[in-house]
Amino acid sequence: MKELYVIGVLNKNRDGKNMARRVFFSFYYKEDIWRASQVRNIGVIEGNKPVSDNDWEQITRGGDEAIKRWINEQMNGTSCTIVLIGSKTSTRKWIKYEIEKSWNDGKGLLGIYIHNLKDNEGHQSRKGRNPFDDFTLNGKALSQIVNAYDPPFSDSKRVFEYIQNNIAKWVEKAISIRSNY
């Protein structure tokens, strides 16, 4: 449901050849799936399919341990987590878990505000709180370390284009920032 390859973000494999970075997307499924899908479809490689509503219901029926196991499996092999920030993202238990796990696993971490992307009914939402404000590192708010990008447009198409044009460099910057801690 939340993991994808970002094309244009290049990483070298053992043979020195370029390959796309694998990233994990963290978002509030119920409120932001439509907006998140727009971002996730920027450079998706074939065969990487999100979990369906029915599959997610099956996973959640297994309780907290099943959800943690699923998240851990999805994050395995990724180098960065992108938190797609909607109006209620900062309040979500599993997003908090994904942020903490990503940081503790040494992954790059960044946020992108998606409130100005339209949903399936053509509506935008209100800007949510920065979820990185809820974490500290050595007494410093994680939001002072991790970048949360807020596209400077209110038009949904321009927001999408801004994200599309910058996401690759944001991922590289997040990985670089994380390597300093």
Structure description:
- The protein is of the alpha/beta class.
- The chain is built from five helices and seven strands, in the order E-E-H-H-H-E-H-E-E-E-E-H.
- The strands form two sheets. A five-stranded mixed sheet has the order 1-2-3-4-7.
- Helix 3 crosses helix 4.
- The radius of gyration is 16 Å and the shape is globular.
- The protein starts with a strand and ends with a helix.
Label this structure with key terms:
five-stranded mixed β-sheet; 20% strand; alpha/beta; two-stranded antiparallel ribbon; 181 residues
What is the string of SSEs from the N terminus onward?
EEHHHEHEEEEH
Terminal CA distance reads 29 Å
Major pleated sheet: 5 strands, mixed
- Major β-sheet strand ordering: 1-2-3-4-7
Radius of gyration: 16 Å
Residue runs with pLDDT of under 50 for 5 or more positions: 1-14, 44-49
What's the helical proportion of residues?
Answer: 25-40%
Measured by DSSP, the beta-strand proportion falls in: 15-25%
Shape: globular
Average pLDDT, all residues: 85
So how many helices? 5
Number of strands: 7
Helix-strand category: alpha/beta
